[in-house]
Amino acid sequence: MDLKELFLIALGTAVIFFYVVKLLLFSRMLFPKMWFPLSKSFFTSMGEWAVVTGSSEGIGRAYAFALAKQGMNVVIMSRTKVKLDQVAKEIGDTTGQRVKVIVTDFMKDNVFSEIEDQLKDLNIGVLVNNVGTLPSFIPCKFLESAELDQAITNVINCNVKTMAKVRFLFFGKKKKNFFFYLYRGKGVIVNISSGVASIPFPLYTLYAASKVFVERFSQGLQAEYKDKGIIIQTVAPFGVSTRLAGYQSTNIVTLSPEDFVKSSLQYVRAGDKTHGSVCHIVLGWLLQSIPLKFLYSELMLHSLQDYVKKKTAQKAPSSTFESGKNK
């Protein structure tokens, strides 16, 4: 056997080994309870309080309920006081846990010092950064967006700046304000991104790009603070039946907020990024496997627009699709 044959055999073996390992790692995601088990006291061991932004409805509300059911007191934030008060009452009545309401609009500037004052004395162990805004419910090309300048400002303030600023409050310069008490060596940050950030996504260009920031910023922070025992994870869902998704009917792909959150919490120890559920993990794999030329064809883009418009028309009598609101 000559050197060339040996090289080809070694190369083939290495490729096979690489894909076998990749397949094994992927298969772990299908069985999170087996591979990433959590003790019953996992979340309460992080601290007494959980903070959830954008928690008046949808995914944020579901996270607040789920963490309260785990035994944590919760701080809920959004800009709609009536909704927050209702959620606070429901959580308190259902779980018996304490709930603190903070009314704030993350699309505005200079809201963070007030938030810091209201959180500084709490023993906080979990932060869920869920707040976000969609420039336009109906997908459209970037330059065709209504009130484009304001949309850019809203998305940057809400989806980008908030991610960095909220962390600054808790990793702040004063030791007493260290959100996860770095010297204590524990804490969880969950940042909600989106499945559309998996690839450059036409018609949702601004929104998808802002969610890429969420992922990269989170992954960088995890690398910086992993040795401190802090978990920083991006959760990137696809279909979840929320206002921003047009309250789609639930099915095997489109999950209710409650079902999605219940599933996603099982992946907390699964790495710095997860799609949060088995079906969404498979969707993420499929999306990255489809040639972009096919996804970016005019036929596909028009089909997406027509589909969303149709769903909007069906839901319009009972639902409001306002852009620029916290999730």
Report on this model:
The chain is α/β, with parallel strands linked by helices. It has one domain (41-315): 3-Layer(aba) Sandwich (Rossmann fold), CATH 3.40.50.720. 46% of the residues lie in helices and 10% in strands. It is built from eleven helices and seven strands. The protein has helices at 3-28, 32-35, 58-69, 81-95, 112-119, 148-170, 205-225, 257-264, 278-289, 292-295, 298-315, and strands at 49-53, 73-78, 99-103, 124-129, 188-192, 231-235, 273-274. α4 links the parallel β2 and β3 (99-103). The chain is globular and about 75 Å long. The N and C termini lie far apart (64 Å). The model is unreliable at 172-181 and 316-327 (pLDDT under 50).
List the helices and strands and how they pair.
Blueprint: H1 3-28, H2 32-35, E1 49-53, H3 58-69, E2 73-78, H4 81-95, E3 99-103, H5 112-119, E4 124-129, H6 148-170, E5 188-192, H7 205-225, E6 231-235, H8 257-264, E7 273-274, H9 278-289, H10 292-295, H11 298-315
Parallel strand pairs: 1-2, 1-4, 2-3, 4-5, 5-6, 6-7
Please describe the structure with a list of short key phrases separated by commas or semicolons:
10% strand; seven-stranded parallel sheet; Rossmann fold; 327 residues; disordered C terminus; alpha/beta
